[in-house]
Structures are given as structure tokens and as C-alpha cells.
Write a structure and sequence with these properties.
heterodimer, A: mainly alpha, 2 domains, 18 helices, 75% helix, globular, B: alpha/beta, Rossmann fold, 9 helices, 10 strands
Chain lengths: 533, 252
């Protein structure tokens, strides 16, 4: 069974590479990158062998913790990777999870990342031979346990994440995870900036290392340290802890495999009833005019508003654009002791990230695009409806943040300038986004999929789209921002230019972007569908 | 029947790498016909119908709908078409009723018109309570029916359906058949791809057999059959190259 499963994996990998040659390039690039790291590992190993066991322990704990956490997070972030051995695929063959597991474990080891980290752990372990043969052998055993921990943690986190995202009512989870991760990161940055990096390393870092060293996360790596100092009792305890932890993870993995075998992905049931919110939607939307209110644009508006309210992918980007300026005001300004007027950057950060974030807007609706395309030349209406659904929440938010910044800094005289320029930044970046979303769409996670995942095949196209939209936004933004900066720094009278010019330019860029994007949408509609599906 | 064909395809070609998914397809679909497009898996049926409905830009060739060039004048041609694609998902965070309304508004119908037609379609397609459920909670057959409703809401002249009966239960299938026959009786044209020969023989007045991206035979169904039943004729045209062996070990 083991040989069979590993063979299955290698065969399908070969076929996949023949079919999609770029995968081979990715594989070669990854392999080369790892090979270039090997000398560094050798160097680290000899450096470690030369130092006392205290420092060696600190280094090992830090590396070990980072790597285990990485193995837990990366599979969640990189969706669309290799799912050849997805347990669900074995469901129809009547094989039990218990019979599958050994094969799955071995197959998981025969991958580039696993082999690389196997080499890393064994190299680190080998440095303990300086303390005696038995300590070295003990460390080698620890390396094996640590590798198993990494692999199991990856499998468990990936399948648990998939289970969470399979449920459509995961808004709360998605938001909570995003907030927690960003919040934790912001806290670390704040500590670092507030107290200086050195102080951080001297105190917090050591406290953290001490704390981690006691957890089973890395105890397979610290056990040799105890053995080296002759404390074999403690060494045995740490190793036992590591083995138990790896065991728990493997059992959890086994459980997810068993679960997957009897739980096909299904569309979650549950009759939610609601009246028809589409047929007359858009009548009172201020960003739609004339026939758009009763016509196609209003329908598109209603649909996209529904997405903004219920789709985890939209909610994640919503959380992101709000947290970024919030972190700037709450963390960066106090940490660097900046002039409070820097707070005026917040509405611009917000406006620009809202606008830039829509640069692939069309692709997010890959599943609904055909309906828009078969209906005829609806490009203009589609774009106006889509972006009205963004404006309806982002414009009040941007204005609110701009006014709040003026209030907080008590520079009320600057409020018109900041509001006008921020509105300008929003309109400009949305106009650019409208164009790039039609010109350079790339594949995104489909509705209902992991909102953090990037489709593996879209990396290249995605980079182009992101680069072009960033450059275009960067070129245009100074026109709205510079007068505002002058108003803040030089003379408040510039504020009139900033206010009037910002609004005018924003509105113009928005309308122009939408109009051209709508025309392009119509002329490219036969290709758009193939580009995003 | 008028002389202008409901759908006229000339030299439609789509190439994916080395695969000619559609290889200079020529096809005339008379107005008022119930036209079946049959062919083995991978023959290019979906590719051809996608190019004929504006969903996929052809590498070469033209598609005319009732005499109007679809790719030159999409604004004039697309309102004549109702499309039910196969394998394309839809916007599933709307309820069934909302999805029909959405399609109606995209087609530029007035809200009052949409409401009447929406309720008619829901009743006729027996979607009842399902019209108040999110499409993402639908079974495959229900999703098919709601997509058909979306294709019908603007009263098209030509209906293009890719595998309309796949995954649909017999009762619903009878309902869909009745709607389609009524549609043709009223002067409309139905173009339908299918794998089920019996269904095509029963419903269609005309048929085209497609294989390896080419039209192998097309026309009046009796002419194509040439005295055989459609399945025999189909196998003859497409070629059955499988080796026949008796699986004696199954009889244990």
C-alpha cells in the first residue's frame, strides 16, 4: 500500500508536469533555491558545533518554532497546490484510513520541502555529536520526530482550514483569524519600535525562547541539550513530550483522513428564505443615475452588495483595508513619535487600498460572468453597478476617517483639503482598478473557497496585474495628494486647491475609468470568461 | 418558417494548443426547428455552442443569429438568444427568484414585467419553495432548472441549451420538455446538445452529429438517420474503435 500510494503520487506528478510545463519550472526553481541554502545549513551546523550548548539551544529553539509555525500556516495560505493525495479521492475505493495512513505519511516525506527540512533537522542534530555519540544519536531520533511533527501539523491545519472554509457561514471565523493575525503582528511591531530592537532581543526574545523551549513544539530539538548536560531524566521527559505531541498530531491527521473519506464536499443545506431583493434594487442608490437605477446596473449593484455582505473573500479584503490605516494611526505614529499630522495619511492609505484592492474585481465573480456576457453589451452597466457597490460603503468611510483625523489632530482648518484629496485618491484608484480588472484579470479563489488562497497557476498573471495597477495608481496619486501636503506643511490656502481639485480629479478619473472599462468589457467579453475561469 | 436560418455558423474554429476543439464548423439551423447536436465526449459541442452564443471568442469564422452577426453586432444579436451553458456555475448567493430577476434586469426588462414572468417561470418549473432558497443550496437538477428560467425570462427567439436534461429528475424533465415543445410550436428555435440519443430522436426535428471538432452529418433527422435508428447511425459515423472482449471473470 505504501509503495502504491507513493507511486501514485510520483506518476501523477509526472503527468501533471507533461501537461503543464510551467510546473516543472516552479519545481526546478524551488529545488535550486533549496540547494543554494544547503551551504548555509552546513555553515550553521559547524557554527553551532563550535558554540556552547546554551547558544546552540537558543538557535535551535528559534529555528524550530519558526519552522513548525510555518508548516502550519503555509498550507492554509497556498491553496491550489498539490492535492493528488487528497484523502477524498480514495473515498470510492473502500480503503480504510488506517491502511492509507502509512502511505500518506511516506508520500508526504517524499516532497521537496519535506526532504529539505529533513536535511535541516538531521544537520542540526549532527552538531550534537560534538557532545558524544549517544547524545548525537539521541538528537537524530529527535530530528525524525520533529520532521513528523512538521508534516502532521501541515496536514492537520490544511484540512481543518478546508473544513472551516467549506461552511459558508464562516464570516466570523474569517474575520476573527484576520484580526488576530494582523493584531498579533501589529503588537510585535509596536513592541519592537517602542522599546528598540536591542531591548526586545535582550528581554522579550529570551523570555519567549524560554517559554517555547518548554513546549512540545520544539522539545524534540531541545532534548539533546538536556542529554548533553548529563540530565538524561529531563532529556527523556522532553523527548517523551515530543513523541506524544507528534502522536497526537498523527492521530488528528488520521481523524481528518477518516472524516474526509465519509464526508464528500457538499453544498451546505439549510433553507434561508428571503424576499426578492434584486428586482427593484438600486432605485435609491446615489451613485447610479437615470436608467441605471431600474436597469442592469442596479441588478449588478444588488448582487455585488450581497457579495460584500456574505462572501468571505470580500470580507477579508474589507477587514484588510480597514486594519491597515488603523494600524498606521494606532501603532506606527506613537511608535516613531511622529508629528500627529501624519494621521492625515490614514484616509489616503484607506482610500488607496480600497481602490487598489479592486484591481481584479471582475475575476471575483468568475462564476456569474457568463450571465452578464450572454445578456449583450452590458459592460458599462456591469462596471457602474460593481463600483457603485464599492462606493456605497467606501466613500462615507473615507470621508468619515478624514474628518475624524482632522478632529483628532485639532486641525479643523485642514479638513476640507484632506476630505477632498482623500475622495480624489479613492476615485482615482477605483478608476485605475476598473481598467486593470478588465484588461489584466487573473484567477482568484472561486466563491466559497479559502479566501486567503492564491490559485497556483495565476501567480504570473497576478503579478502583472498587481504591478500595472500599482504603477498607474502611483503615477496618478500625486496630483491629488501634493496640494493636500502643501496645505498641511506650507500654507493652508492650498487647501482650496486640494479640496476642489481632489474631488474634481477623483470624479473624473472614476467616471473615465468606468466608461473605458465598460467599453473594453464589451469588446473583450469573449476572452474575459476564459481568463478568469 | 422563414428562410433566414435561426443560427448560421461559418468556419467556426477554436484551437487549444495542438487540439482543434472546433475545426471550421459550418452549420445552418433553420428557424422553427428543434435542433439536436450530438457527439461523443470531447467532440467540441460545448466549444461550438459557446462560440455561437458569445461566451467564447472564436479564432476564426462567424456566427449569425437570425441573420445578425453575433460578434459584430452583439447588441442586436444577444437579445435574440437564451443560453443555458453546461458546467458553468452561476452567482449562487442569490435566491432562485432573485437570480431570475437578476437575469431579467440584465436583459433590460421593467420590474413589473420581471415579477410576472419570474412567478410564471417558478410555477411552471415547479421551483415553489426553492425560489426562496439560495442557489448555493440547490441540487444539480434544481440549479439546471433555475438556469433555464434565466435563459427564458427575456423571451428569446433562439434557445441554446447545453445538456439541459442532465441531472434532472423525470418529472422535471417532462416539464422542461413541455416548455421547449411549446416554445418551438410558438415559432421559436431550440438548439440542444445531448448524449441521450433516445431523447434527441423523440424531441428533435433536425440533428447534427459532431466528432473531433467537425460536423460529420447534419440536417433533417430522418435524412441523417438514413433508415437506421440514431444510435446505430451515430456509432457508424463516429466509429466504434473499442475492442470487444467478454468480461467472463465478472460471471463468478
Amino acid at each position: 500500500m505504501v509503495a502504491h500510494i507513493v507511486g501514485l503520487r510520483l506518476t501523477s506528478m509526472r503527468h501533471l508536469i507533461i501537461r503543464e510545463w510551467w510546473r516543472l519550472l516552479v519545481l526546478i526553481a524551488a529545488g535550486l533555491w533549496m540547494v543554494t541554502l544547503l551551504p548555509a545549513i552546513q555553515w550553521a551546523r559547524s557554527a553551532l558545533a563550535g558554540t556552547d550548548s546554551d547558544n546552540r539551544l537558543t538557535a535551535v529553539v528559534a529555528v524550530g518554532a519558526v519552522v513548525v509555525v510555518g508548516w502550519a500556516i503555509v498550507p492554509v495560505l497556498v491553496a491550489g497546490g498539490d492535492d493528488t493525495l487528497d484523502p477524498r479521492r480514495f473515498a470510492t475505493f473502500g480503503v480504510s484510513a488506517t491502511r492509507l495512513m502509512p502511505g500518506l505519511v511516506v508520500a508526504a516525506i517524499v516532497t521537496l520541502p519535506a526532504l529539505f527540512f529533513a536535511y535541516l533537522w538531521v544537520s542540526l542534530a549532527a552538531s550534537w555529536f560534538a557532545e558524544g555519540v549517544w547524545v548525537g544519536l539521541f538528537a537524530l531520533a529527535g530530528a525524525v520526530v520533529q520532521l513528523l511533527t512538521c508534516i502532521a501539523v501541515a496536514k492537520v491545519s490544511a484540512s481543518w482550514a478546508a473544513r472551516v472554509f467549506a461552511n459558508r457561514r464562516t464570516r466570523a471565523v474569517t474575520l476573527a483569524v484576520t484580526v488576530l493575525v494582523l493584531g498579533g503582528f501589529a503588537y510585535v511591531v509596536w513592541r519592537a519600535l517602542h522599546r528598540g530592537l536591542e531591548a526586545l532581543f535582550e528581554t522579550d526574545f529570551n523570555v519567549l525562547i524560554d517559554a517555547i523551549a518548554r513546549t512540545p513544539l520544539v522539545s524534540a530539538l531541545t532534548a539533546p541539550g538536556a542529554a548533553a548536560s548529563g540530565d538524561w531524566g529531563r532529556a527523556a521527559w522532553l523527548m517523551g513530550l515530543a513523541v506524544a505531541w507528534a502522536g497526537v498530531l498523527v492521530i488528528a491527521w488520521h481523524q481528518t483522513v477518516a472524516h474526509a473519506l465519509v464526508t464528500p464536499l457538499y453544498r451546505s443545506a439549510g433553507a434561508r428564505t428571503r424576499p426578492d431583493a434584486v428586482v427593484r434594487a438600486g432605485v435609491r442608490v446615489p451613485f447610479l443615475t437615470g436608467s441605471d437605477r431600474t436597469g442592469p446596473a442596479g441588478a449588478v449593484y444588488a448582487r455585488v452588495v450581497r457579495s460584500w455582505r456574505t462572501d468571505p473573500r470580500y470580507l477579508t479584503s474589507l477587514t484588510g483595508v480597514i486594519l491597515l490605516p488603523a494600524a498606521f494611526v494606532a501603532v506606527v505614529i506613537p511608535a516613531f513619535d511622529l508629528d500627529p499630522r501624519w494621521a492625515f495619511a490614514a484616509p489616503f492609505v484607506l482610500a488607496t487600498s480600497v481602490g487598489w484592492g479592486r484591481h481584479n474585481d471582475i475575476a471575483y465573480d468568475s462564476s456569474a460572468l457568463w450571465l452578464d456576457v450572454v445578456a449583450g453589451k452590458r459592460g458599462g452597466a456591469v462596471m457602474r453597478g460593481r463600483f457603485a457597490a464599492v462606493l456605497v460603503w467606501s466613500l462615507p468611510l473615507v470621508v468619515l476617517v478624514a474628518v475624524a483625523c482632522a478632529a483628532w489632530t485639532e486641525h479643523w482648518e485642514l479638513a476640507p483639503a484632506v476630505v477632498g484629496a482623500a475622495v480624489g485618491a479613492l476615485g482615482t484608484s477605483l478608476g485605475v482598478a476598473a481598467l486593470t480588472s478588465v484588461l489584466l484579470p487573473y484567477r482568484t479563489p472561486a466563491p466559497g473557497e479559502n479566501p486567503f488562497g492564491a490559485e497556483a497557476g495565476s501567480v504570473g498573471a497576478g503579478l502583472v496585474g498587481q504591478l500595472v495597477s500599482s504603477l498607474a495608481t502611483l503615477v496618478l496619486l500625486p496630483f491629488v495628494i501634493v496640494p493636500c501636503v502643501l496645505a498641511v506643511l506650507v500654507d493652508a490656502r492650498w487647501g482650496i486647491v486640494a479640496a476642489v481639485g481632489g474631488v474634481a480629479l477623483g470624479v473624473a478619473a472614476y467616471l473615465y475609468g468606468l466608461t473605458v472599462a465598460g467599453r473594453l468589457y464589451d469588446s473583450r467579453s469573449g476572452r474575459l470568461l476564459a481568463a478568469v475561469r | 418558417m422563414t428562410d433566414v436560418p435561426a443560427m448560421a455558423l461559418r468556419g467556426l474554429t477554436k484551437v487549444y494548443g495542438s487540439l482543434r476543439a472546433a475545426d471550421a464548423i459550418d452549420l445552418d439551423i433553420p428557424a422553427g426547428s428543434f435542433y439536436g447536436v450530438v457527439g461523443p465526449n470531447g467532440a467540441g459541442k460545448t466549444t461550438t455552442l459557446s462560440m455561437a452564443t458569445g461566451l467564447l471568442r472564436p479564432d476564426a469564422g462567424t456566427a449569425h443569429i437570425l441573420g445578425i452577426d453575433l460578434w459584430q453586432q452583439p447588441d442586436a444579436a444577444k437579445p435574440l438568444l437564451g443560453v443555458l451553458p453546461d458546467g458553468l456555475r452561476t452567482f449562487d448567493r442569490l435566491t432562485g427568484a432573485e437570480l431570475i430577476s437578476y437575469a431579467g434586469r440584465l436583459r433590460g426588462l421593467a420590474p413589473e414585467v420581471i415579477e410576472t414572468r419570474r412567478d410564471d417561470l417558478i410555477a411552471t418549473l415547479d421551483l415553489g419553495m426553492a425560489s426562496r432558497t439560495l442557489v448555493m443550496d440547490y441540487s444539480a437538477g434544481m440549479a439546471k432548472k433555475i438556469a433555464l428560467a434565466c435563459a427564458l425570462v427575456h423571451a428569446p427567439r433562439v434557445l441554446v441549451l447545453d445538456e439541459p436534461f442532465e441531472a434532472v429528475d423525470p418529472v422535471s424533465a417532462a416539464g422542461i420538455r413541455r416548455i421547449l415543445i411549446d416554445f418551438v410550436d410558438g415559432g421559436g428555435t431550440v438548439v440542444m446538445s445531448s448524449h441521450v440519443m433516445a431523447l434527441v430522436e423523440r424531441l428533435c426535428t433536425h440533428v447534427a452529429v459532431v466528432g473531433a471538432g467537425k460536423v460529420l452529418s447534419a440536417g433533417d433527422i430522418d435524412a441523417v438517420r438514413g433508415g437506421m435508428d440514431l444510435e446505430q447511425r451515430f456509432v457508424e459515423l463516429v466509429g466504434d474503435e473499442r475492442q470487444h472482449r467478454d468480461l467472463t471473470w465478472l460471471r463468478t
